[in-house]
Amino acid sequence: MNSPRVHLFLILTFVVGIMSGCRSTPKRSWVEPIHLDNWPRELREHPMPPDENMHKIDLGGTENASHHLVRVRDREPYHLHAEHDLTVFVLSGHGDIIIDGTTRACTIGNVLFIPRGVPHAFVNKSDKVAVAYAVFTPAMRVKDFVKVPAVTGK
Description:
Blueprint: H1 4-22, H2 39-45, E1 54-61, E2 66-72, E3 79-80, E4 85-92, E5 94-99, E6 102-107, E7 111-114, E8 120-124, E9 130-137, E10 146-147
Antiparallel strand pairs: 1-2, 2-9, 3-10, 4-7, 4-9, 5-6, 5-8
């Protein structure tokens, strides 16, 4: 049982264990937490110009995702994002969301995922400006808003 092979095995196991514990851990990039209960304050601090139909507030992010508050007074033009996936959380207002020609009702609490390249638009049917929390992946660093002809029907 106390053979040199067993001792060598135990020594090698110990050395490998020590060495694997010494490797450096990857650095992480962190941003300030985004608290969705603070969005009314963000809107007050960044008023929507009265002549604008849509307004975006940049909340931050990393290279992998960017976070925004988006306001729509009337409607968005039918458009797509060629390089970005979009996840939307509806915070206030209601209306219709048109995704790839299909219209659905959309209201507070709805969560929508719109893959890159898929045409979409929101039509506000409430009497106030609609607000959504939008996450683009990867982070939206350049304009990626391509207007497309509207499709009706589905």
